[in-house]
Structure prediction request, 426 residues.
Amino acid sequence: MKKIKFTLAVQILVGLISGVIVGAIFYGNPTVTTVLKPIGDIFLRLIKMIVVPIVFSSLVVGIAGVGDIKKVGKLGGKTLLYFEVITTVAICLGLLIGNIVHPGTGIDMHSLVKTSISSYVDTASTVQHHSFADTFVNIVPTNIFASLGNGDMLSIIFFSIMFGLGIGAIGEKGKPVLRFFEGVAQAMFWVTNQIMKTAPFGVFALIGITVSKFGLAALIPLGKLAITTYGAMIFFVIVVLGLVAKAVKINIFAFIKLLKDELILAYSTASSEAVLPKLMEKMEKFGCPKAIASFVIPTGYSFNLDGSTLYQAIAALFIAQLYGIHLPLLTQINLMVVLMVTSKGIAGVPGVSFVVLLATLGSVGIPIEGLAFIAGIDRILDMARTAVNVVGNSLACVVISKWEGQFNPIKASDYIKEINEIAVNS
Prediction:
């Protein structure tokens, strides 16, 4: 008789289910938040602690290995082009589904959960003046140590690329520095593996708090929006990303199965940062070059938020429909353009999709007060869009690797066999 292996994915799932049960039993009891919040906060802090050193060291090693500024520039151009195309498709799909389903039509506004959105307003006022030019200006840091301290990912990526190119350009003199960063990267991946062992406790705490605050009934008055959002996310992954995967000769369902651990963790914590280090490691094992995995995945968290942009389009129409506001085609095109700009470069902001909506709605005449009605379940919707972001960024890494002619299909096939064997033996 085979011994059942209690894998990390199973442990996280148990933590998720246990958190839902505890939250439901103690619904409305503030003691749950008091007890569980420190656990959830510690887990998220552990994740934030490792993201910057891993991204910085991995990028430096990857770019120094490429060593050619023309190749790096070519890689960056292709990556941003792909991101822009996919996120535009996501926004268009969100607007199309919002117009067909009409999730906000016929809902009694007085029955909706009202939540304060004051905590997002200050951030939104900054984002409202966040132009496309500002995104690119802010990529260049004035002080790299300040950027490292603030976790400003775009600035860190820019400096890492320049530093990596510098190491590659000085040849033999740069090799000791390169070996140092290789050691840092390996050490940080070890630290990541240790931190991941605490994930079930973090998931349990974060889900328990969410359910205890809003209850299992939180989805009922806003069920139409939740069902529309989740349905759109599933459609986007299976059809849109499925077609992209097919174009690069990958089965989307096998790819999702490959990412199951990361998807469970991303969904339950609603945090892309929680899986970023493991995604980079996994995509490298799947056959993507280290240089591409180290560049594409961190950059994707600022420029390729597929799930977030899809949700923002649906939510904007939902609020307009709540107030009985008809948005003509030109206004919706304007909304699409504004979302394309405001959603870039602010991935590190808490509740980023909510903040982007706050910054965007006023530009097309939709009352921002409407966001107070969906703030209560934003966490539940955030879980879905985070999982979609993870699939989108992982697939982007494969697409760019293939586009560059550097994808290793034999390595990918061997890794899938290894994963399947582990699943069978466990």
